[in-house]
Amino acid sequence: MEKPNLEYVEELASGDESIRERLINVIKNEFIEEKEEYYKSLKNKDYKKIAENVHCLKHKISILSLDKSYKIANEFEHNLRKLNLDKVEDFEKILVVISYYLKTI
Amino acid sequence: MKCIIVDDEQMARVIIRTLCDKIKSIKVVDEFSNAMQAIKFLNANEIDLIFLDIHMPDFNGLDLIKTIKNPPKIILTTSDSEFALEAFEYGFIIDYLLKPVGFLRFQKAILKAQIHASTSSDIKLGLEIENDFYVNIDRRLVKIDLAGIYLVKAERDYIEIKTETGNYRVHSTLKKIEEKLPDSLFLKIHRSFIINIKKIIDIEDNSVLIKKDVIPVSRSKRPELMKRLDLL
């Protein structure tokens, strides 16, 4: 499975440590919140809400340069709009990879 | 230019603010996590530009566009280009930025907004559009004139750049070169092709002829292509 990286964040920060730190903090905090929201919506089988949660998480996936994972998340989001949970397992694997990665930075 | 940012995601707002901070002529006066707050602000304040996320829960960016009177210039930010097409019906939509937004692409959008905002011909923009760029081919840096490019084709991990003077196969992606190409000349008409719209010879059904190349046009890209053509 592809590995997340901070290439985009570094490019945006252009060597400014305070910007880098701010971006990383926001990504860490918002990812945790969005992931919790996602599992809550999933438990309630609220497909509209799950799709919204996936949409937000999708942006974090792309920020971490996970191109293939982004495509999976995109597919999952589209499936959810059709009230279909296909790709849920693949999507959750991505969440695990990101959760682990964010603990290392 | 005074602007506001409307996006339900904090990360997206921080990114746009960071990008704005890199351009002196842009001042972010406020940011909002939902469209309703933004509408209240817009009713009481005058601004020049909105960075607006299309996809927000409950009341989305398109709803906001339909609600506000005398809207300022708007740059849409989105993860799905399909939603942006509908928004291009409105004259005050300057551009749309696909997330995650890169600085070069952002600069181009700001440049467009500044051009729209001024009727003066001698406006000093403080930004420059490059006329050429270099590509690495067999350890040689080759200069490519932007206006001479008529087609860029994606082929797995490579792109083929076809120009008036020759063709170049470069290890890169369509997304990367798209950021370097000015929107005034180029348009991505298919997931594998970017064309120079000034070089189109003819258009038939869902394909365009450029030089000797017949290029397919995605159904979703056709409205934008037709809009960009100078039809009689």
Quick description:
The complex is a heterodimer of chains A (105) and B (232). Chain A is mainly alpha-helical.
Total domain count of chain A: 1
What string, H for helix and E for strand, traces the elements of chain A in order? HHHHH
Amount of beta strand of chain A: under 5%
Determine the CATH superfamily of the largest domain in chain B.
Answer: Response regulator
- Work out the radius of gyration of chain B: 19 Å
Tally of strands of chain A = 0
Q: Tell me the helix content of chain A.
A: over 70%
Averaged pLDDT of chain B:
85
Number of strands of chain B: 15
Task: Report helical residue fraction of chain B.
Answer: 25-40%
Span of the ends, CA to CA of chain B: 35 Å
Largest sheet of chain A: none
What is the H-and-E element order of chain B? EHEHEHEHEHEEEEEHEEEEEH
The two chains with the largest interface, and their residue counts, are: A-B, 20 and 18 residues
How are the SSEs ordered, and which strands pair?
The complex is a heterodimer of chains A (105) and B (232).
Chain A: H1 7-13, H2 17-43, H3 47-63, H4 67-81, H5 88-104
Helix pairs in contact in A: 1-2, 2-3, 2-5, 3-4, 4-5
Chain B: E1 2-6, H1 10-21, E2 27-32, H2 35-44, E3 49-53, H3 61-67, E4 73-78, H4 81-87, E5 93-98, H5 103-117, E6 132-137, E7 140-145, E8 149-155, E9 158-163, E10 167-170, H6 174-180, E11 186-190, E12 193-196, E13 200-204, E14 207-210, E15 213-216, H7 222-228
Parallel strand pairs in B: 1-2, 1-3, 3-4, 4-5
Antiparallel strand pairs in B: 6-7, 8-9, 8-12, 9-10, 11-12, 13-14, 14-15
Helix pairs in contact in B: 2-3
